[in-house]
Amino acid sequence: MNNIVFLPILIPLIVGVVLLFFAKNLKVQRVISGITMFTLLGLSLYLAHIVYYGGTHTLELGNWPAPFGIVLVADNFAALMVSLTSIVGIVCLFYGFLTLSEVRQKGYFFPFYLFLITGVNGAFLTGDIFNLFVFFEVMLISSYILIVHGGTKYQLRESIKYVIINVFASALFIVGVAYIYAITGTLNMADISVKVAELEQRGVLNVVAILFLLVFGMKGALFPLYFWLPKSYYGPPAAIAALFGGLLTKVGIYAIIRTFTLIFYHEPGFTHTVIMFIAAATMFFGVLGAVSQFDFKRILSFHIISQVGYMIMGLAIFSPLAIAGAIYHIAHNIFVKSALFLYAGATQQVTGTTDLKKMGGLLKTHPFLGWTFFVSAMAMAGIPPLSGFFSKFALVLSGIQEEQYWIVFVALFVGILTLFSMMKIFIYAFWGEQKLSNEEAKERKIGKVVVSILPLVALAVIMGLAAEPVFVYLLDIAEEILEPSNYINSVLKE
Amino acid sequence: MKSSLMLHTITRIVAFIILSFSVFLFFAGHNNPGGGFIGGLMTAAGLLLLYVSFDLKTIKRVIPFNYTTMIATGMLLAIGTGVVSMFLGDAYLTQYFDYFQLPILGETELTTALPFDLGIYLVVVGVALLSILTIAEDDA
Amino acid sequence: MEILMILVIGVIFTVATYLILTKSLLRVVIGLIMYGHGAHLLFITLAGLKQGAPPLLGEEAVAYADPLPQAVVLTAIVIGFGVTAFLLVIAYRTYKVHQTDDLDQLRGSADE
């Protein structure tokens, strides 16, 4: 009985509802939502701390005992993800304060922002597969609203496709849960894991595993299912696009890692080989899309896809180092990808376009923007000593240890293409001929906006410089989630 | 649209039947079929009948609810019921019940599920009417 | 009975798939709604259509039906209700702004 496990879900939910009453009072909404996000950050860091030193915390909602009621489980992985959510949530919120137009901010932006955080935190913390569906829906409905927020012509056209594909995926999710319930007779994930271990994962359970891979793959933008992402993330304003690009796909990845380490881990020969092929294809085709584009935001959107491939590659290799690398990559990607999207928004504010061919020479007029962008772009591409290098290093090393040479080759090749496309952005947007006149450049100062992005860049640098202690922590997490009995014992208390 | 006498007369009677039955369904809930969701949907249906048969503006004057506030109130009530048990040292959403002697009703079971259900009821009525009226008001 | 229900669900999924693949936006929305209903029915059916009294307080019986699938499906229906309302509103807005509900014309061109 630990109500603290529930607080990361409860606080944004309750504050979001309270903000509905102040729909017209912008100042109150800003102050309250800002304070809430900081409270949430403190709380989630405290949760991660007590979970690391005190073991997994669980909460049985309504005092109904474990396999029957809904449980919330905060193990190290979940607590880490909740902390990352609050960090990126704060930055995107403050960036939103500075850049979103007043009309947009007044249109119930803050309540739905907090509901989105509620859904994401809930998806991380829940220990019940149907409850996972419910929190996915909370997250998705808020994301539907934020992605059409403002309602421009382009947004409406692309968002409806995003909504349609996700509603379809949700229907498949229910089908998957139905199969699981028919086979095991329970919805509690720990209990499902016990039952599946007794049944030996065969035949129909492999089908269910692939069905779940399909469902979460649609949210996480895996290989054949990523087609919706680049266009729909292009529409919304940078603050929202950054939150989506940084966070939402990772929820799908988290769900995949959770289900494939806790429930469907008995036949890695089949499931994890499938995942490995998907990982390779996702990385490769994602980065090809990025290379072919000439638009700041679109390049970044395609990069989301190729980076997702790395995370799944870690799961497919399935050794402690690989899982640690995958989690490191998730954390790194949440920071850096959000930062890059925010930089795209900032450059758009300066130049009025996201088309790289129409930009140029920004390094002269806005050096601060240029160089901090350069740092995060290099972190993204994996240049040591920044964060992106160490995740790829861990993934490649574990791939060689497990003798999966071809995926290592693909990963390295994709790394080169990533570097190429990041350099393309830097060369076109920041080098070259100056397109803005000096007067124009002086008028468009965005120092404040860039400062609001800096925490993310700083974290990416720190994660790189302090890679050793970070990896000690992550290897603990990886060992923990690779041994499902930890999770099961703490939930069912046997 | 020309006002239809028959529709008006029937609506006046039927709306009351629907609304009172929805209240019955709401209180029947928890241990028997019924509850906030069903009751709320039926109330919404009754109110919608009023909106359809009389004019939108007329009913707006008669029922001057702001449905957004209604949704927010309902959600706050439902979440708040769960929070109460946190302050009493139990897990979130733990429910309590006891039997009381009430005037007229006699011995009645009162549970904390009732305010929770009332919250759901308000949310459902609010959501249903808000989404329908949003489309209806956008006439072109 | 289960066999019959499975066949019905198959028909629903078939129709829903057909509708989703059509060009009209409204039909796609209806197809999605049908997909949801099919999934709900599948849940109820796969959990076993058991004989037994309703699982309510005050019912005296030897066997009770399993309440969990019903509770789960009710939750899913409520969520589906909200999503459907949102889908209809956004489809309507898209239609109003773009003056068309033909998905071919909503495809969008590369140069924007």
From TrEMBL, chain A:
Major localization class: membrane
Keyword Transport: yes
GO cellular component, one term: plasma membrane
Subcellular location per the Swiss-Prot or TrEMBL entry: Cell membrane; Membrane
Pfam families for this protein: Proton_antipo_M
Domain NADH:quinone oxidoreductase/Mrp antiporter transmembrane residues, every copy: 128-417
Domain of life: Bacteria
GO terms (BP aspect): ATP synthesis coupled electron transport
Keywords: Antiport, Cell membrane, Membrane, Transmembrane, Transmembrane helix, Transport
Molecular function via GO: antiporter activity; NADH dehydrogenase (ubiquinone) activity
Membrane topology field: Multi-pass membrane protein
InterPro entries: CPA3_Na-H_Antiporter_D, NADH_UbQ_OxRdtase, ND/Mrp_TM
Keyword Metal-binding among record annotations: no
Membrane-crossing residue ranges in chain numbering: 6-23, 35-54, 66-96, 108-126, 132-151, 163-184, 204-229, 241-264, 270-296, 308-328, 334-356, 368-386, 406-431, 452-475
PANTHER family xref list: NA(+)_H(+) ANTIPORTER SUBUNIT D1 (PTHR42703:SF1), NADH DEHYDROGENASE (PTHR42703)
Family affiliation: Belongs to the CPA3 antiporters (TC 2.A.63) subunit D family.
Name this polypeptide is given: Na+/H+ antiporter subunit D
UniProtKB/TrEMBL annotation, chain B:
One GO CC annotation: plasma membrane
Membrane topology: Multi-pass membrane protein
Keyword list, A-Z: Cell membrane, Membrane, Transmembrane, Transmembrane helix
UniProt keyword ATP-binding, yes or no: no
Segments crossing the lipid bilayer: 12-29, 35-54, 66-88, 118-136
Domain Na+/H+ antiporter MnhB subunit-related protein: start-end pairs: 6-129
Domain of life: Bacteria
Keyword Zinc-finger part of the UniProt annotation: no
Compartmental location: Cell membrane
InterPro entries: CPA3_antiporter_subunitB (IPR050622), MnhB (IPR007182)
Any single Pfam family the record assigns to this protein: MnhB
Family: Belongs to the CPA3 antiporters (TC 2.A.63) subunit B family.
Protein name (record): Na(+)/H(+) antiporter subunit B
Organism this protein belongs to: Anaerobacillus arseniciselenatis
From TrEMBL, chain C:
CC terms in the record's Gene Ontology section: plasma membrane
InterPro entries according to UniProt: CPA3_antiporter_subunitC, NUOK/Mnh_C1-like
Entry similarity comment: Belongs to the CPA3 antiporters (TC 2.A.63) subunit C family.
Domain of life (superkingdom): Bacteria
Entry keyword annotation includes Zinc-finger: no
Parts of the chain that traverse the membrane: 6-21, 28-49, 69-92
Subcellular location: Cell membrane
Membrane topology type: Multi-pass membrane protein
Keyword Cell membrane: yes
Main location: membrane
Name of protein: Na(+)/H(+) antiporter subunit C
Gene3D superfamilies: 1.10.287.3510
Lineage, broadest ranks: Bacteria, Bacillati, Bacillota, Bacilli, Bacillales
Keywords carried by this UniProt record: Cell membrane, Membrane, Transmembrane, Transmembrane helix
